[in-house]
Amino acid sequence: MIERILNFLRFNRLASRKKLSAVVGGLVVILLVGIFLWSIKNGHLGIFASGEQVTGHIYDRNDKPIAGVEMVNVKGGNKITSDSSGAYTIGVAAGDITLTFNKKGTSFPKVFDDVPDTYWASAEINALKAANIVSGYSPTEFRPETIVNRDQMAVFIARALAKANGLSSGDNDGIPAGPASPSFSDVPTDFWAYKHIEYLKSQGVISGYADGKYHPEYQVDRAQMAVFISRAIWADLVDQVNPTFKDVAPDFWAYKDIETLSFLGIVSGYADENFRPDEKVTRAQMAVFISRAFKNIVTYQGGYIGKTEKLFLETSQKVVDDVYLDAQGEMGAVRGKLTQSDGSPAKSKIIFFIVRPNSNDTLTKEEFTFKTNDQGVFSAYNLPVGELNYYIIKDDGSARYSSDSIFEKLIYIQKDITAELIIDDLATISNPIPSPIPTAS
Questions:
Q1: Which residues are paired to 371 by β-bridges?
Q2: For residues 239 and 293, is the Cβ–Cβ distance under 8 A?
């Protein structure tokens, strides 16, 4: 009897061990599968990845390869650098992707004691100081971590806008004096930033509050800064269906402005894929926003203009995308006015473009889209030097203007020069946009 009991206990102990082993083994398998799938999704097991890639070369406008250009997959976070031949290959996940390209050269000598060369925004701050856009609290103190108020924001953006429009060299002298009667009850004519605020109001960049005040003492958050910048460069707002940032939904009041600046490579989010629109903007962050928005008036020695590419990749797809970057400071601008036959403003979009061949015999079209304000005036900044084609579409789609051939020389952009383009009878122009206009392959 005792032997039977011992055998029974021995049997059940072995069975329990087998059950426990099976359970533990199952959990280990589940854990390993989870790690495997997570690694594939996040690009850590490249040899098992499904094969989505973007590959190409980085060139300057003279078709010379640019080495050392960093490209970042905005959502995935992975980054690589172009090699000595300008070539790059970056693995991505299928679906919508956004790549940013940038090569920042050496900056100007250090100006402010509190902005050392190792500071993350030192290049932008020093470059804007050299361009007479920003100034410090003293000759040696910038206070990069100080929060920006609406009056300071107006001064810095007004200087950049006036310089881009050819009115000044970046200081205060070329900014219009402003009207004799103030537009805002809390910004009198003797206010230190009066003409800057009035200039931005005249350009449609800023507006006041319902109480008729501007509230220059209010701090600026990231959403407000995005709106101010997008208006200052008269960017054509993109209609992005899928939000780039987790915390900026399509119904957010500044959604289109944020998405537009993200598309242009002017703003970016944080590692958690949030934009944090309510976060206050520091003077350093403002300097970065402005330097990216007004690239044609800011020079980094040896650097190249960053740009953003938005692509869609299907599963196991490889896309060839050759990218052309412009040297910092090697940019031009066009300012003009479009009117109807009766002299009234023609609210329109004007699209400048270049068509270039890719390394695999497909075509890439670079577009630079701008829109007119209520007076029919437009300012096109950060245009590459050289020949550009363009076409115009009225807001109602009733009139278009373009060349007879997309390869016809239409306008020549020169470094640091603002060209003028006046079309005073847009309503009578009916020749169609060349069809088809090549699109990126």
A1: 349
A2: no
